[in-house]
Amino acid sequence: MMMRLKGQSILVVEHEPSVARELEREFTQAGAKVFAAGALRDALYLAEYPALAAAVMNVQMGGDGESTAPVCRRLQDLGVPFMFYTKFDSTEAAVTWPEAPVVAKPAASATVAETVA
């Protein structure tokens, strides 16, 4: 199952370092290459990586409520599928991007990886 991620490049957009590390470890063990962004600016830059297979997005970056919508729009424009892994209200995101699965925090990183796969 998880070998479907072997050789794939996954973008992880997550402001909580411990969560980002856990996801990165899970995807690396599944054979994927991980690009992690803890800030919106970095996420927008990494979204341009030409070989991205998928992305895991938080709905917001940090307590300031900065939306990841600009990154989601760019990924959509580039044809890169993404999902949300968040503790924030994802109602608006689910309406805007109905094709993007939503996994609520906390969940096992394996659950997130399975959703991506």
Q: What is this entry, summarized?
A:
The chain is of the alpha/beta class.
Give the SSE layout:
Blueprint: E1 9-13, H1 17-29, E2 33-37, H2 40-46, E3 52-57, E4 60-61, E5 66-67, H3 69-78, E6 82-86, H4 91-96, E7 102-104, H5 109-116
Parallel strand pairs: 1-2, 1-3, 3-6, 6-7
Antiparallel strand pairs: 4-5
Largest sheet: 5 strands, parallel
- Radius of gyration from the CA trace? 13 Å
| Tally of individual helices | 5
Low-confidence stretches: none
- Please state the structural category: alpha/beta
- Spatial strand sequence of the major β-sheet: 2-1-3-6-7
Oligomer: single chain
Helix and strand sequence: EHEHEEEHEHEH
* Percent range of helical residues: 25-40%
Instruction: Let me know the average pLDDT.
Output: 89
Number-wise, the strands total 7
Distance between the termini: 8 Å
**What global shape is seen?**
globular
How much beta, percentage-wise? 15-25%
